[in-house]
């Protein structure tokens, strides 16, 4: 975040407004920087590419695929945790923040991979998991060993002689967030699994340890930090009782607690401002105001955040409404039209696959609908976060039986549903559709055994559709999802209007078409997305003259008879004069 890297771009903008409102001219200045202009590709390292035959991805596998990654046109990579870990939550339970898990390779392999990214102009974002550690971390081993151990206050403890601690909800453990530990006759807090004890951010020593760890990785050359579950780091240590049922509003009660901003400011001064790095928060609080407090430049805290409202809208096989989709993205855009910056995503390692969630996975529509969604992602304001496999339209798995699930979250939810006497058939139907395991299957490279991911036994079953959906097949097809992604990435990289331009929603109530413009000074682009499997027509009065088609996932765009007719899941961007 070195200041000399920032330059000011003053642009005249038309303020965001609904189609009925009168556009008003406002003058806004944006700070231009690489992490706003970039496209981020998320790699789940366990499932990307295995080179030593143990069925588990590794650094050398990523090194082997560096040219492929570069060919996508992406400019940043975020990798899920690869630190020493017992893998109770696939690496989100860190046992040593300075060591890499040997199954991924050595620190030298890591460095070789990092250099490989940098040689290709790709920045690297580290996953920083410091709301909690693993129970196997040395800090926790010390902390639990006795009440007067110097590491005791690295975690939150409640002495058993004070009675039961006030109820705290756990996202993964149906029995709640306090775990009794007989070693010191006390309870420790864990917002996630019981093997993930929460670190005590109220302790300045712990905070310094974390800053040192971040500096350790910044010195190695990482360019950014993704702050895992960080909105939960601060706790109200007076431990008030929370009202019954409060957990339904989890972020409101557990997120953004009293001292969070103090800690983030300290982190900014201790770490972020000393390097050319940025930090992105997982989660953005529960209001726009919360989100602004995290990311507005003058706050000197974080630089970017991502919210969950988009993925929250489609967690069951019943689908979602396009009207809600437009509303969510439009309101977040307008809330950040002048200040602050957000990331845009539709899928990641905690979610089902993009095409199942928001598109149409039927073979007939899989290609255009994934292309349409990738066009959307890469044409919005905000830094696009795209997830490995979505560039080729990888789909959900079919996992109807709970025995096949390895994920700690899925198992916890199953237990909780059983205990609550829920309809388990419906529960499994929803889990099968929405489970994050869907998004963690091995990357489908080609049609050889195990999709070219490993020569051994993959840690997770490969999706059987790899024979049709794989990189090698799509490389050969100029109209594939993969090649469309590349074209679209190039369009974004070459057109600052898609990065900084003002967004305006058109025909808000159109039932099947999402149409909007992006405008930056004299440049204007019209984005047209058909979210349905039927042809859809839209009439856009006073839009100006349609000029050059910048990208289109069909050979033509029908603009005859005064309206535009889009084919099933057609996505096109057109310059406007
Ligand atoms: C975040 C991660 C998720 C993990 C959880 C606990 O939400 O994205 O994968 O299970 O934090 O670390």
TrEMBL record:
<dbReference type="InterPro" id="IPR056300">
    <property type="entry name" value="SusG-like_C"/>
</dbReference>
<feature type="domain" description="Glycosyl hydrolase family 13 catalytic">
    <location>
        <begin position="42"/>
        <end position="440"/>
    </location>
</feature>
<keyword id="KW-0326">Glycosidase</keyword>
<keyword id="KW-0378">Hydrolase</keyword>
<dbReference type="Pfam" id="PF23915">
    <property type="entry name" value="SusG_C"/>
</dbReference>
<dbReference type="InterPro" id="IPR045857">
    <property type="entry name" value="O16G_dom_2"/>
</dbReference>
<protein>
    <submittedName>
        <fullName>Alpha-glucosidase</fullName>
    </submittedName>
</protein>
<dbReference type="Pfam" id="PF00128">
    <property type="entry name" value="Alpha-amylase"/>
</dbReference>
<comment type="similarity">
    <text>Belongs to the glycosyl hydrolase 13 family.</text>
</comment>
<dbReference type="InterPro" id="IPR006047">
    <property type="entry name" value="GH13_cat_dom"/>
</dbReference>
<dbReference type="InterPro" id="IPR017853">
    <property type="entry name" value="GH"/>
</dbReference>
<dbReference type="InterPro" id="IPR013780">
    <property type="entry name" value="Glyco_hydro_b"/>
</dbReference>
């Amino acid at each position: 975040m070195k200041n000399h890297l920032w330059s000011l771009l003053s642009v005249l903008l038309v303020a965001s407004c609904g189609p009925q409102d009168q556009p008003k001219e406002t003058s806004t200045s944006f700070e231009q920087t690489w992490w706003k202009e970039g496209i981020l590709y998320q790699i789940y390292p366990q499932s990307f590419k295995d080179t030593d035959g143990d069925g588990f991805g590794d650094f050398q596998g990523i090194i082997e695929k560096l040219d492929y990654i570069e060919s996508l046109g992406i400019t940043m990579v975020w990798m899920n945790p690869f630190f020493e870990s017992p893998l109770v939550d696939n690496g989100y339970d860190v046992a040593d923040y300075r060591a890499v898990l040997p199954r991924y390779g050595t620190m030298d392999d890591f460095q070789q991979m990092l250099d490989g990214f940098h040689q290709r102009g790709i920045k690297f974002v580290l996953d920083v998991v410091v709301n909690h550690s693993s129970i196997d971390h040395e800090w926790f081993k010390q902390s639990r060993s006795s009440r007067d151990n110097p590491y005791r206050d690295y975690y939150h403890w409640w002495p058993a002689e004070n009675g039961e601690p006030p109820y705290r909800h756990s996202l993964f453990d149906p029995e709640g967030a306090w775990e009794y530990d007989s070693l010191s006759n006390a309870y420790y807090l864990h917002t996630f699994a019981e093997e993930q004890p929460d670190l005590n951010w109220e302790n300045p020593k712990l905070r310094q340890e974390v800053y040192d760890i971040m500096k350790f990785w910044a010195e190695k050359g990482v360019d950014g930090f993704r702050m895992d579950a960080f909105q939960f780091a601060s706790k109200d240590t007076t431990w008030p009782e929370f009202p019954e049922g409060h957990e339904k509003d989890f972020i409101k009660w557990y997120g953004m607690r009293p001292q969070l901003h103090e800690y983030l400011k300290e982190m900014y001064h201790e770490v972020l401002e000393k390097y050319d790095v940025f930090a992105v928060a997982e989660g953005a609080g529960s209001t726009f105001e919360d989100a602004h407090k995290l990311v507005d430049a003058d706050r000197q805290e974080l630089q970017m955040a991502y919210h969950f409202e988009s993925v929250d809208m489609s967690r069951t096989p019943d689908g979602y409404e396009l009207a809600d989709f437009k509303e969510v993205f439009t309101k977040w855009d307008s809330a950040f039209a002048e200040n602050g910056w957000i990331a845009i995503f539709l899928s990641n390692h905690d979610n089902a696959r993009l095409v199942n969630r928001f598109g149409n996975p039927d073979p007939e529509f899989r290609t255009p609908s994934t292309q349409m969604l990738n066009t959307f992602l890469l044409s919005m304001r905000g830094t696009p976060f795209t997830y490995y496999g979505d560039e080729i339209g990888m789909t959900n798995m079919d996992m109807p039986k709970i025995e096949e699930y390895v994920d700690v979250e899925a198992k916890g939810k199953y237990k909780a549903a059983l205990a609550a006497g829920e309809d388990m058939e419906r529960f499994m139907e929803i889990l099968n559709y929405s489970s994050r395991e869907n998004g963690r299957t091995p990357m489908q490279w080609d049609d050889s055994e195990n999709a070219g991911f490993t020569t051994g036994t993959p840690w997770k079953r490969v999706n059987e559709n790899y024979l049709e959906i794989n990189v090698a097949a799509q490389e050969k097809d100029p109209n594939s999802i993969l090649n469309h992604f590349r074209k679209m990435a190039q369009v974004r990289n070459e057109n600052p209007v898609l990065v900084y331009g003002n967004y305006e929603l058109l025909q808000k109530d159109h039932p099947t078409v999402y149409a909007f413009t992006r405008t930056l000074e004299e440049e204007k682009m019209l984005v047209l997305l058909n979210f349905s499997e039927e042809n859809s027509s839209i009439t856009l009065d006073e839009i100006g003259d349609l000029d050059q088609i910048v990208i289109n996932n069909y050979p033509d765009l029908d603009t005859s008879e005064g309206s535009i007719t889009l084919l099933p899941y057609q996505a096109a961007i057109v310059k406007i004069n």
